[in-house]
């Protein structure tokens, strides 16, 4: 093998909710090549979401090979791989056959709502918040894992005997890429499981006991930037981070007070709080992020479950657009949404409401409403949800953001970005480099293997491509937002459940 000086590339594998991507970066952190494949979403019941872990692995390996081939590179020229992933999504597989015992239960899936209600009835909510930094919601891996162990016959016993392994998508991919040699995760992903103590940085014995999860099946938890092992073709795997933490790192929000919002399937606003695990009073999560060298830092997070997925719904289920990009054209065709609000609570509501029983709805329909208004309302809903979260975060941190840094697939939409600035009354800064999630993973891997010496070498990369200035007057802004709040209130607690009125 050649040494690090002769290896001039890093590959980031960005395993997202809707697609697997591989992006090759050079020494100046420029994108050399990108390959991407979408994969199937499975909705076996209302509010349930699954992926096939084998398809996740197949698409992720395929795009890596494809990107190398397109760039005309050999794997010997790659210094390291950084992995970043959709978080919380839960995979359980057989250690011997390497086959999953059930589909991956996706972060958006609501099937473990009743398990969460039971945790609340048993008085564990405060403990969960204090220890794991999370709210008691089916979003997180722990109750999804319990569901699998409760529902796949014999699985708990097999897990106890060490025959089955659990992992979030990072663990699953690394185990597959290393031919079953390495079973690890990193602190950022572990902090999303509801099984991990974010203060002591250990799996939490009480949570394992409460959810009846055998410790034998859990991965070893490592830092986000170190060499974990090698692929079968010999490339070092040197970085792991949950995609939202990777984006925070890629945007170089490594100092306390720095924040970004990512507009992908969902929207995730994270603010670095340095070495302080700040406890939210307004529905934010406390989570683990990365400091300047990839070490443990903390962040406050506002997680919105349905952002870009609302646009996918217009495309795939309603079939009123052909492509996500078309939404900008249709939204601009009308001067406003004509009083229409779309609340995309398809999988309940995340921050700051945390209502697994909410369901989506369209409000304000009158005879003059056209498809253009509904499309516009869909985009506006993404911006309103971000306002909900930013308001809550600002109340928690006591600071007002001067500007919001953004990234993710949907920031290509100029209408959305302008409406976002308008409804926040805050400037929105869109970076030139949009692949910040992949970039964050690449940085973590590059720092681990000495490809880059420190983040300082790369600070020049954080260039703003466009600033969106708020242009709506205060009264109009607050009137629109009041309508949104009213619409949200009508979607709450929709699904029938124990304890409902
Ligand atoms: N021009 C656009 N306008 C609005 N939404 C968009 C646009 N382009 C992409 N999207 C949405 O962004 C999401 C894809 O972003 P991405 O960051 O790749 O997400 P993920 O990592 O969650 O798979 C999709 O949900 C898609 O509908
Ligand atoms: O796939 P994304 O980019 O929407 O991210 C999903 C989040 O990690 C879920 O917590």
UniProtKB/TrEMBL annotation:
Pathway: Polyol metabolism; glycerol degradation via glycerol kinase pathway; sn-glycerol 3-phosphate from glycerol: step 1/1. InterPro entries: ATPase_NBD, Carb_kinase_FGGY, Carb_kinase_FGGY_CS, FGGY_C, FGGY_N, Glycerol_kin. Belongs to the FGGY kinase family. Inhibited by fructose 1,6-bisphosphate (FBP). ADP binds at residues 17, 21, 265, 308, 409, 413. GO terms for cellular component: cytosol. It catalyses: glycerol + ATP = sn-glycerol 3-phosphate + ADP + H(+). This is Glycerol kinase.
């Amino acid at each position: 093998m050649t040494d690090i000086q002769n290896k001039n590339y890093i590959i980031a594998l960005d395993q997202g909710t809707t697609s697997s991507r591989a992006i090759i970066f050079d020494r100046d952190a420029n994108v050399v090549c990108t390959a991407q494949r979408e994969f199937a979403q499975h909705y076996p019941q209302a509010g349930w979401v699954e992926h096939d872990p084998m398809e996740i692995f197949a698409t992720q390996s395929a795009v890596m090979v494809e990107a190398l081939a397109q760039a005309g590179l050999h794997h010997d020229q790659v210094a390291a791989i950084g992995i970043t992933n959709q978080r919380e999504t839960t995979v359980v597989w057989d250690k011997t056959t390497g086959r999953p015992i059930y589909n991956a239960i996706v972060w958006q899936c609501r099937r473990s709502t009743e398990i969460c209600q039971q945790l609340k009835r048993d008085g564990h909510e405060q403990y969960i918040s204090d220890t794991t930094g999370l709210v008691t919601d089916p979003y997180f891996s722990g109750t999804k894992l319990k569901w699998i162990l409760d529902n796949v016959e014999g699985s708990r016993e097999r897990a106890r005997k060490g025959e089955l392994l659990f992992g979030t998508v990072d663990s699953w991919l690394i185990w597959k890429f290393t031919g079953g040699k390495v079973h690890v995760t990193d602190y950022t992903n572990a902090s999303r499981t509801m099984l991990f103590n974010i203060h002591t940085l250990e799996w939490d014995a009480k949570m394992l006991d409460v959810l009846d999860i055998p410790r034998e099946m859990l991965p070893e938890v490592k830092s986000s930037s170190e060499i974990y092992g090698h692929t079968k073709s010999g490339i070092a795997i040197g970085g792991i981070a949950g995609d939202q933490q990777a984006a925070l790192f890629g945007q170089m929000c490594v100092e306390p007070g720095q924040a970004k919002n990512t507009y992908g399937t969902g929207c995730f606003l994270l603010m670095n709080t340095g070495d302080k695990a700040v406890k939210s009073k307004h529905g934010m999560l406390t989570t683990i992020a990365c400091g300047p060298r990839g070490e443990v830092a903390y962040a406050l997070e506002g997680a919105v479950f349905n952002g870009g997925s609302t646009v996918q719904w217009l495309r795939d289920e309603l079939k009123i657009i052909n492509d996500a990009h078309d939404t900008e054209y249709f939204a601009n065709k009308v001067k406003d949404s004509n009083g229409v609000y779309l609340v995309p609570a398809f999988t309940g509501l995340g921050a700051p409401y945390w209502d697994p029983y909410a369901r989506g709805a369209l409000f304000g329909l009158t005879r003059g409403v056209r498809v253009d208004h509904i499309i516009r309302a869909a985009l506006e809903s993404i911006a309103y949800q971000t306002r909900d979260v930013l308001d809550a975060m600002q109340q928690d941190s006591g600071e007002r953001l001067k500007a919001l840094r953004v990234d993710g697939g949907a920031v290509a939409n100029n209408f959305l970005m302008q409406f976002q600035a308008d409804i926040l009354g805050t400037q929105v800064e869109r970076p030139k480099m949009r692949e910040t999630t992949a970039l964050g993973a690449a940085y973590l891997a590059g720092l681990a293997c000495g490809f880059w010496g420190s983040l300082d070498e790369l600070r020049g990369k954080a260039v703003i491509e466009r600033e969106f200035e708020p242009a709506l007057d205060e009264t109009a802004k607050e009137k629109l937002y009041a309508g949104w709040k009213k619409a949200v209130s009508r979607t709450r607690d929709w699904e029938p459940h124990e304890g409902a009125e």
